[in-house]
Structure formats: structure tokens, C-alpha cells
Amino acid sequence: MLFEVLSKTTEAWDRGEKFSHYQLIPSLQHYVLIRQDFPRVEHFRRQDGQRWSYRAYGAVEILVLDGVRGELAIAMDALYADLPEPTEDEPPRGPQ
After folding, report:
1. Which positions ≥6 away from 77 have C-beta within 8 Å?
2. Which domains, from first to last, does the chain contain?
3. Of residues 89 and 23, which shows the higher confidence score?
4. pLDDT, tens only, 21-42
């Protein structure tokens, strides 16, 4: 499993060329991209050795990752519990 916390300056690299390199790691089964500015997690999972499935998670969902030692469940509301609310000067975070 690899987890990336996205930033504005590295997001394109994390989604693009870096992910292409990671796909060459035969044992990699899960690639998880975590937004830091609003509740959104994207999960890429290796299927049948080479294909990758994709799923995005929002604020009230639970991401479940299966692995060698069982399952890891991550509640999105708990992951983002300390994310500050936007101020009046900031636009709302995430999709409306």
C-alpha cells in the first residue's frame, strides 16, 4: 500500500508519472491519494495482476483496504475530523 497526501504543487506528478513508476512494483496492490483541503480520497487497486480499478470516497464513506494481514478500514469522517471549517474569506471546500 502507498498513500500520498496531495498538494497543489505535487498533485499532477503524484497522479501521473509517479503513479506510472509505482505500477511497476509487482507487490503494490493499493495506491491511495488523499486530498488535504477537503474530504476526498481516491483509491486505485490492482486487479488481475495489471489492471487498476478506481474509486473515490467522500466525507461519510469508509475506505476498506484488503491486504496480507487482513483488512484496514478508514472512516473518512475520522480521517478529516481535524480539518478546519472554511472561513468567510475562503470558498467552500470540495464539490458542491
Report:
1. 39, 59, 60
2. 2-79 (3.90.1570.10)
3. 23
4. 999 999 999 999 999 888 899 9
